[in-house]
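Q: Sequence in, structure out?
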Amino acid sequence: MRSSFSLSFTALGALSVCVAATANAATEPGLVIEEVTVTARKFEESLQDAPVSVSAFTASALEAAGLKSISDISNYTPGLYFQKDQGRRFDRPVLRGMSNILGVNNVANFIDGAYVGGSIQSTEIQNLERVEVIKGPQAALFGRSTFAGAINYISRQPSNEFSGKVDSTVASHDEYEVGGFVSGPLIPDTLLFYAAARYYEKGGEWQNYDGRSIGGEQSKGASLALTFNATEDLRIKARMTYDKSDDESPPNALQTRFVNNCFVTNPPTSNTPAFCGELVGGPLELDLDRLTDPGVNAETRRANLQFDWDLQGWTLAGVVGYSDYEEERQFDADFQRFLGGAPVGQTHRKDEGLSEEYSYELRLSSPQENRFRGLVGVFYLDATQGAGIDDPFTWRRSYPIEQNFQAALRTPQVPGYRYVDNLAWFGSVAYDFTDQLTMTGELRVATDEIKQVSLTRTQTAEYDATLPRFIVDYKLNEDLLLYGIAAKGNKPGGFNGNVNLPLDLQSYDEESAWNYELGAKSTLLDGRALFNVAAYFIDWEGQQLTNTFQPPVGTPLSFITNVGDVETFGIEFDTKIKLTENLAIDALYSYVLTEYVGGGTPEVTALNGRPQSTNIVGNEVPRSPRHQFGASVNWRQPVSDQLEFVARVDANYRSKSFVQVDNLQWVGDRTLANARLGLESDRWTLTAWVENLFDDDTLVGGTRYVDFKNDNVPGPGFPRGYLVTLAPGRQYGLTATYRFGAGN
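A: Exactly. Output:
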């Protein structure tokens, strides 16, 4: 793998020089691609001048592609894998192959620079100013949970002129959406406002065995923002958002034990027969009649306060963030219908959870035009995650005949509450050795204090981390930037907290990684084309992943452990080309090869029955497609002086991804094609669209599970099944947008 990495660096350098050389071929000036500004390093700079790998989506780009969620955005971001594989509640982003299953994500979400917890999937993005996906460890400037990268949502800011927008969508599967914003001055030049609201509803695309709708979604949200220009040098911004979602049960189906086809009779004995191959899933057979309100109800409240104070060229900036996410989930935990007789394996659950964070950041930065410049800052996070908001119990139903939860068997909910205090000091310095060569050093020193509280015990731990990042960038000419990065990231350890786990499985250690990257950003053909490429190597130690423990009595228990060490090699590129004034093409590609170079798991022993065989060396990490490809063709044709015809076609491909570290089963490769046709003027747009044009029904996700219902069927070990998520099919719709006020 290391030799391949060296060869790729050589090829990367040659490719960058060759591509830059084509700049002289420009023949038609004026067809310039829109310049994008990013804040990936805590200050504004052009995307093409930033020596870090960032995929940025402006408001116009989001609207043009019809992107409505972070899972949509992932299809247009090289190296990002974000699937809605268990509804809109279970965020598991994978960036550059750095995956996890349970526990804290490896990619953190930020809104206007403030850390937010809980699910991000129901957050509306139609009225954002920009979305930035920042790749590689971002611990030095963004802090904890940015082990693999960060996703920063930048909100639309209040304007000094009255303006607004209204969107409305009608689509198949009974989808209806209406939303919009209005902005303007309350006191011209001094106090500005922004207000937005949204209602979204989509009917269940799937049908349960009993005819009940599955997969329906509903969201209601609103936001309010104010900008106060206190003086010419001091600006204060405040924002509050609220979102309430009410979703039906997601389309999760169980692939039962009867499909298992390997390790069934493997001598000397196989403890856990398994399935080998591409997961096939099963019918939707959810027993929902025993639930009072099946599905997920969630509420999200967020607030953000920022200030920027210009101190004679220096800038003092502060961000205070608040995020509160609460959910109630009722679901059929065995994912199979009741056929009568003995109620073996019939399990229904009601879970409650919360995630609440208060974050505070203060930083002082020098003028960016200085040859020697830098910033220093301090950050504090107070976070609570837990289960059992009103009642510290999960209701588990052993018998399916009672019609209310109070008659059901009550057992402790796990893990209880988890408290995190994170204090960090950070800074960066940059020096321009020449007009072309700049070196930057960044450092974060952080302490995490973690307390886990369950019904029978309280556990505490403290983790200290020193996390540097070094960047060297060289401006070969005005149109070509070369850069190299070495960065360290980490994710603190923690506690599993399940009172039924042995003590030696109660905790897990931190994981860490060094990321080495070379990249090039080029602007070609007098600004008509962009080509950005990056190659990277990640040395990952102590990956935190999920394992299972079989207690003497009862069902297997999931827990987090450090399964092993991983080496990852990857290369990615994206390009934009304006062929003519009317025709543009975008393309992207990502290759990620992960390999375990150390470690093992008892899961392997459970499969082959050989106690010493736990080795996973040579296998790939789960949930990491090796290949990703995307392309878009955009065509605009004037119809009159005030009207344009717009057409767009998108194609996105991902290769298969393994479900577990044993690499025995996988979710198949998937190809999506979308098309859009519309008419557009300065004030209004009318677009007809189709998503998943060819109705690809490849499963969205899969994970190992237990076939609770068939536990009584004779056979070795506890019955293994696989929980899969069905893919949404073809959808078509019509979206109308009306813009008013200044600039329209």
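The helical segments are 2-21, 59-65, 70-74, 139-142, 602-608.
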